[in-house]
């Protein structure tokens, strides 16, 4: 049996298209570090079902690998790190908040 890699639930906000992350209190945040870090596979599947039921709020929900960090979950893969800073053609918003990806 393989060990479960911690996950966060991520999706895109339906209207704005922003990458968002499901928090433990069921709200969606644009900040990856606020996401609920899920360390149990069954719980991850339940949270994903919860996210997919919110069709009027988000689209394309999926589980993304993450790891614990000093300020909350951190993305593991480049694609997820890139999604945390938003579209690369905007010099404002998430890009202004971070020095690099």
Q: What topology emerges from the helices and strands here?
A:
Blueprint: E1 7-13, E2 19-22, E3 28-29, H1 41-52, E4 58-67, E5 74-75, H2 78-83, H3 94-97
Antiparallel strand pairs: 1-2, 1-4, 2-3, 4-5
What is the percent of helical residues? 10-25%
Count of all domains:
1
Helices and strands, in order, run as: EEEHEEHH
End-to-end separation in angstroms reads 34 Å
Shape verdict: globular
Give the assembly state of these chains.
Answer: single chain
Beta-strand residue percentage: 15-25%
Sketch the major β-sheet. 5 strands, antiparallel
**Average pLDDT metric:** 88
Order of strands in the sheet with most strands: 3-2-1-4-5
Helix tally equals 3
Number of strands: 5
Give the radius of gyration.
Answer: 13 Å
Could you please describe the fold and organization of this structure?
- This protein is α+β, with helices and mostly antiparallel strands and 101 residues long.
- It has one domain.
- Helix content is 22%, strand content 25%.
- The protein has three helices and five strands, in the order E-E-E-H-E-E-H-H.
- The protein has a five-stranded antiparallel sheet with strand order 3-2-1-4-5.
- It is globular.
- The chain starts with 6 loop residues before the first strand and ends with a helix.
- The model has no long low-confidence stretch (mean pLDDT 88).
- It comes from Aliigemmobacter aestuarii.
- Pfam families: DUF2849.
Summarize this structure as a short list of keywords or feature phrases.
single chain; 101 residues; alpha+beta; 3 helices; 5 strands; 22% helix; globular
């Amino acid at each position: 049996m393989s060990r479960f890699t911690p996950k966060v639930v991520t999706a895109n906000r339906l209207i704005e298209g922003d990458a968002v992350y499901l928090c433990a209190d069921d709200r969606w945040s644009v900040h990856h570090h606020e996401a609920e870090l899920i360390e149990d596979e069954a719980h991850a599947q339940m949270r994903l079902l919860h996210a997919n039921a919110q069709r009027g709020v988000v689209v394309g929900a999926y589980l993304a690998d993450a790891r614990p960090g000093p300020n909350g979950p951190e993305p593991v893969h480049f694609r997820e790190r890139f999604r945390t800073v938003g579209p690369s053609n905007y010099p404002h918003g998430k890009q202004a908040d971070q020095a690099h990806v």
